């Protein structure tokens, strides 16, 4: 449970920081939403604010001790991830090449790996919600610490997925 809380929590925390703490992060995110044409232009800013608020809600709910808040945090994460996935799928189907700015500035255009990432995170959040709701809390503090560390590292790797894929992809004339 602790590992999944840390994994999902750090992914949403890094997404939140990329949009709010990085100079131009929110503006870039808003422009990417506008380019993706997932909602009419008049609703782009309210949607961007709602997404940032939702991400903050996930982080807070997962950070607060307690079974009910953890389940609520996981449930909110699942809802957001499914909405993100639907929006990205719609944008990909329309041929959008815009970077998603999920974690701040990015030059990587949307791709199927973003859908897979979001679906995998939604499954992990569902697993976290289920375990949190039915299982006993983590037993041994050392085990919880190891799980937390693993969750933090995996969450960071998920946030850096675009850079990791670029690092291991073949060189093309455009990338040289």
UniProtKB/TrEMBL annotation:
Primary localization class, coarse: membrane
One Pfam short name: MauE
Methylamine utilisation protein MauE domain ranges (all copies): 4-129
Membrane topology classification: Multi-pass membrane protein
Record has Transferase as a keyword: no
Keyword Membrane carried by entry: yes
Transmembrane domains' residue ranges: 43-64, 71-89, 115-135, 142-161
Localization annotation: Membrane
Superkingdom, taxonomy of origin: Bacteria
UniProt keyword terms in alphabetical order: Membrane, Transmembrane, Transmembrane helix
Alphabetized InterPro entries for the sequence: Methylamine_util_MauE
Descriptive protein name: Methylamine utilization protein MauE
